[in-house]
Amino acid sequence: MTTVLSLGGSIVAPESPDAAFLKAFVQLVRAYLSAGDSRRLIIVVGGGGPARRWQQAYREVMECRAGDEHEAQDWIGIMATRLNAQLVKALLGELCPQDVVTDPTAVGLFMGRVLVASGWKPGFSTDNDAVLLAERFGADRIFNLSNIAKVYTDDPRTNPEARPIDAISWAEFRKLVGEEWSPGKNSPFDPVATRKAAELGLSVICAAGRDLANLREMLEGRSFVGTLIGPN
């Protein structure tokens, strides 16, 4: 059984690497995998604080806005994901014998128990890489782990009437996130990944990445706190 974790960079490195979280996360991964020989994990790592800071520096020097020069800003973010992914791979040691995957369309066999991936190319976030790897290795679910516990009907930071959602169809979710991607876009699941996941009929669970007790429940198929996005 293969499960894909889209591990937000804001969890791995909110500003700099969070060593305490990473230690606990690796312990959880080891415990989960030791409970069943057929269990495998694909972990796709985001850029987090380093991506945001380096992109902001670029915008300040170039005197442009967040929506300008998409490709240059995307590449900066992608490089941050690769640094974070290399750290996660190194911490997993013998569980992850393969190099960090930088192109989800070119990966070969799955060796070991964990496959770690980073960003690929401009035009979408690591969420889309997670979807492509789920397709490649026959996973039917993705756990999208970020700094939000659930998807809301609107941004709760600006709309006090925004309500948390327990379950939502892909059609309704697409109305929430829109159709366009831009570097640093604040979306529960990137619009490009959303379209592809809907086409494949995948299920995605959005949940708080730092709540490792909740992640353990999710991995074991038990009751969890989060938002289920699915075909219906």
Descriptive report:
- The chain is α/β, with parallel strands linked by helices and 232 residues long.
- It has helices at residues 9-12, 19-34, 48-62, 70-92, 126-136, 170-177, 191-200, 212-219, and strands spanning 2-7, 40-45, 114-117, 141-146, 151-152, 164-165, 167-169, 203-208, 227-230.
- The chain has one domain: Acetylglutamate kinase-like (Carbamate kinase, 3-Layer(aba) Sandwich).
- The radius of gyration is 17 Å and the shape is globular.
- The two termini are 23 Å apart.
- The mean pLDDT is 91.
Which features characterize this protein?
232 residues, alpha/beta, Carbamate kinase, seven-stranded mixed sheet, two-stranded antiparallel ribbon, 8 helices, 9 strands, globular
Quote the average pLDDT.
91
Morphology: globular
Counting helices, strands and paired strands, the structural category is alpha/beta
State which percent range the strand residues make up.
Answer: 15-25%
Order of helices and strands: EHHEHHEHEEEEHHEHE
CATH class: Alpha Beta
Describe the strand arrangement of the main beta sheet, using strand numbers. 3-2-1-4-8-9-7
- CATH superfamily, by name, is Acetylglutamate kinase-like
Backbone CA Rg: 17 Å
Tally of helical segments: 8
Distance between the termini: 23 Å
Biggest sheet overview: 7 strands, mixed
Compute the number of structural domains.
1
Query: What's the total count of β strands?
Result: 9
Unreliable segments of 5+ consecutive residues: none
Provide the CATH architecture: 3-Layer(aba) Sandwich
Helix content: 40-55%
What's the CATH topology label? Carbamate kinase
